[in-house]
Amino acid sequence: MTYQEQRTALRRLLISNRMFLALEAMEFAERYHTGRRLDGSHEFSHQIEMAEILLRIDALPDRDETLAVCFLHDVREDYGVRDDVLRVRFGGRVADAVRCLTKTLSPGDIDPFRKISGNAIASVVKAADRIHNLGTMEGAFSLTKQKRYHAETQDQIRPMLLAARARHTCRQRALTHLLRGLDRLSPPLDLRIGA
Description:
67% helix; mainly alpha; 11 helices
């Protein structure tokens, strides 16, 4: 399916399911993501494919807000969209989750993975982000960067998701589903063949 076909199908799905916040976030974020990914695909295909991962989860609460965060997760970090703009346009819960997902270099910031695990929506979106990146990195990332991504997944992302699953009981099933997807792409040492 082409990027335009994916985009059109997703827009129709959001409209038919009355997820208008997500639809607005999709259209807002797409205006910023106009370049190409390392693999040559349209830059915004990352967010669309993350949304497809999230939409496969039956037990996903707050779908509209979660998808809005999915579409917006890089706009502050990559394009400098201010927190107050997101807060006014998409609400506090969406803006808070996007803030958690934004890498900052401010002194005194808490560990980014602890910050993400403390936010139910951000933890789910981070899992989908990592799953998509792991699934598309071959041929786009150097072997060194791929190894670094796998190590970070096991050392930081997976423990963060386990902590989030324990903390956010309403998202346990969704996070369990996402952890299984993560483990298929980057198995922990105890799940690897021959370990």
